[in-house]
Amino acid sequence: MADAAVKAEGLTIPLIDFGKFLCGTADDKKETANQVLNGFQNAGFIYLKNTPITPSFRSHVFNTSAKFFKLPMDEKMSHAWTTPEANRGYSAPGREKVSVLKAITDVTQLRSSNPDLKETFEIGREGQEDMPNHWPKEEGETSGFKPTMLEFFSQCKALHVEVMRAIAVGMGIDEKYFDNFVDVGDNTLRLLHYPSVKKEVFKSNPGQVRAGEHTDYGSITLLFQDGRGGLQVKSPSGEFINATPIENTVVVNAGDLLARWSNDTINSTLHRVVEPPNGDVEEYPARYSIAYFCNPNTKAYIEAIPGTFAAEEEKKYSGINSGDYLVQRLTATY
Ligand SMILES: O=C(O)CCC(=O)C(=O)O
Ligand SMILES: [Fe+2]
């Protein structure tokens, strides 16, 4: 059994040694794969330690991200996010309101009441001619930004493939079953900055959050958080539970498309970012996190994974094109 990273109100999020999947004995590998799959089938969330992404590189990526957010607003706005199809660039605080509501009018109402207290910068697969990435100038504080982010993108892409292999092994299907579905790397690297905020802001607006409750859309999300706290995951009994940071772990959660792909045997669980837990301050410091949203290839056709249904009529969803699904979801969010 894996240790628990989080355990409260019927929510158990396992802390899994992923090194044992990558480099362990055959038994270690199978046992770890089972832990990964069980975590996604129950909490919808897992914590991974001992991934190939080193602590020193991770910290370099966080430092590089912070330098981008320190740029003047007009420079950041010159890289503004434009369309759901491209899903690249900078979003100023209040621009995106993630929400469980899908109607655009409702999202607009929500956005004007309690905007998310965050700014983000999104990077997609490099080299897509019709959707170029935005890159800050390779000079001054942001010199080295592009090679750092491209390297991180590619390390995360590789980790996605390995986590999908663990799911396959857990399911008892061919370890490489998902490889051809995820090899292109149609993923999104999102840098997040939650600016420092006075405690008073939360006190005077009980509904105020740093990021509203939502599920992610794709296959899995690799979430790298700093030590500030505030991430919460919804338990089966409906309570939001702190997903307390554990140094050098990667929080991984299943997204809606993986839930659908697994015929709802895997859970895509609601989560949000709220006022940090240690409230004995006048002002909370800034929080930084990085979400790497993994998706099946844009062109992949997604229908129930073998073994997640016994008979045709047990398939809960019709097949769908991955890219169409994601654009549809993103269109409702911005
Ligand atoms: O910042 C975090 O810890 C969570 C971010 C998140 O859930 C998202 O961007 O989808
Ligand atoms: Fe999320």
In short:
The protein is α+β, with helices and mostly antiparallel strands and 334 residues long. The protein contains ten helices and 17 strands.
Structure description:
The protein is of the alpha+beta class. It has one domain (3-333): Jelly Rolls, CATH 2.60.120.330. The protein is 31% helix and 22% strand. It has helices spanning 19-23, 26-41, 55-69, 73-77, 104-113, 145-171, 179-182, 199-204, 256-261, 322-331; strands at residues 3-8, 11-17, 45-49, 89-91, 119-123, 188-194, 197-198, 211-214, 220-225, 231-234, 240-242, 250-254, 271-273, 283-284, 287-293, 301-302, 320-321. Strands 1-2-3-12-9-15-6-5-4 form a 9-stranded mixed beta sheet. A 4-stranded antiparallel beta sheet has the order 8-13-10-11, with no helix packed on it. The protein has a two-stranded antiparallel sheet with strand order 7-14. The N and C termini lie far apart (41 Å). The model is unreliable at 99-104 (pLDDT under 50). Residues 214, 216, 221, 271, 291 line the site of fe (ii) ion.
| pLDDT averaged over residues | 94
CATH topology grouping: Jelly Rolls
The number of domains is: 1
Bound molecules: 2-oxoglutaric acid, fe (ii) ion
Report the order of strands and helices.
EEHHEHHEHEHHEEHEEEEEHEEEEEH
- Approximate shape: globular
Main sheet specs: 9 strands, mixed
Number of extended strands: 17
Oligomeric state of the chains present here:
single chain
By CATH reckoning, the class would read Mainly Beta
Stretches with pLDDT under 50, minimum 5 residues: 99-104
Q: What separation lies between the terminal Cα atoms?
A: 41 Å
Query: Over the alpha carbons, how many angstroms does the gyration radius reach?
Result: 19 Å
| Percent of residues in β-strands | 15-25%
Helix fraction?
A: 25-40%
The strand order across the widest sheet is: 1-2-3-12-9-15-6-5-4
User: What structural category characterises the helix and strand content?
Assistant: alpha+beta
